[in-house]
Queue: 4 jobs
Job 1
Amino acid sequence: QVQLVESGGGLVQAGGSLRLSCVASGTIFAINRMGWYRQAPGKQRELVATIDNNNFRTYGDSVKGRFTISRDNAENTVYLHMNSLNLEDTGVYFCSLANGGGYGRQYWGEGTLVTVSS
């Protein structure tokens, strides 16, 4: 089992920045991929960014060039640095961890709310 706890959400003005953190605990395999997804009101959950144990990163098209994902393996923590936030970035941000070869088991945090105001 893996537990994920997010922090860092809040209210920010458009154009501002925010950093999210997610700490993982439990049985974490050496091969894993951590990431962030978000869900806006009335919309489906979508990929924001992922980073694997080799620091290979992927980003959703809407955040490329504005968001940066990073991780601290020693602390089992993943970060999401968000810059140039706009109203469309508002939503609940969920941390995820896909564990083991083939990423067979995916775990989710409870989410942290990010609200961007005009």
Job 2
Amino acid sequence: QVQLVESGGGLVQAGGSLSVSCAVSGNIFSINNMGWYRQAPGTQRELVAALTSAGRTDYADFVKGRFTISRDNANNTLHLQMNSLKPEDTAVYYCHADYYSGYWQDAWGQGTLVTVSS
């Protein structure tokens, strides 16, 4: 099993910066890829940024150049640094990991709310 707990959400003005973190615990060595998703009210959950086990990063077009995903292996933490925030970035941000435990499974955190005011 893998457990994910997000932190760091909050309220920020447009143009500002915020960082959210995801504490990872459990069978960490079974994790393959990790990522951040977000879901705004009335919309589907969408991928924001991904980090593969090989260290490759991928970003949704709407955050490229503004957001940075990184992993702190020493502290078992996944980060998402968000700069130049826009009101349309307002959403609940979720940490995700896929891992192998007899078969491939998905782990999700409980989410952390990011609100960007105009």
Job 3
Amino acid sequence: QVQLVESGGGLVQTGGSLRLSCAASGRISSFNYMAWYRQVPGKQRELVAGIANDDSTNYGDSVKGRFTISRDNAKNTVYLQMNSLKPEDTAVYYCYVLVISVGNYWGQGTQVTVSS
């Protein structure tokens, strides 16, 4: 069983920054892939950014150049640094982890609101 605890969401003005954190715990030695997704009401959940355990990353097109994902393997924590935030970034952000041969897990979500 894996537990994910997210933090760092909140309200910010356009152009501002936020940093999300997601700490993973459980009897898992390593997490193969860690990512952030986001969802707004009435739309599908979309990938924001992901990072594998070799530190390779992938980003959604709308956040490239503004968001940066990183991970601390010693702490089993993934971070999302969000800069130059726009109102269209407003969403619930979910942490996601994949452990090969075990399963995938979602966090409870954290609200990010960007005011214009």
Job 4
Amino acid sequence: QVQLVESGGGLVPAGGSLRLSCAASGSSFSSDVMRWYRQAPGNKRELVATITSGGATGYKDSVKGRFTIARDNAKNTVYLQMNSLKPEDTAVYYCNVVQSADRIYWGQGTQVTVSS
């Protein structure tokens, strides 16, 4: 059974840093695009960062220069390093992999709270 398990969330003051991890099991995702999304209360889930199998990355404008997505295919893990955190970054963060129309995987989410 495929599982994505996020970790690393927490409560930090504005300006602080967190490193999120998403460990995958049950399948290899080394050839797949992996993504981080987030959802704040009352808001739609939004795409934050993307990394391809070759390591190309993309970011939501508001996090460019502050967040870095990376992957370790040997560990089947994707990371999100978040620096200079702002209160508006507060959300539940989810990792996501789409292998096909019927193989879409989400983690359970990890809460990130940034205090002002």
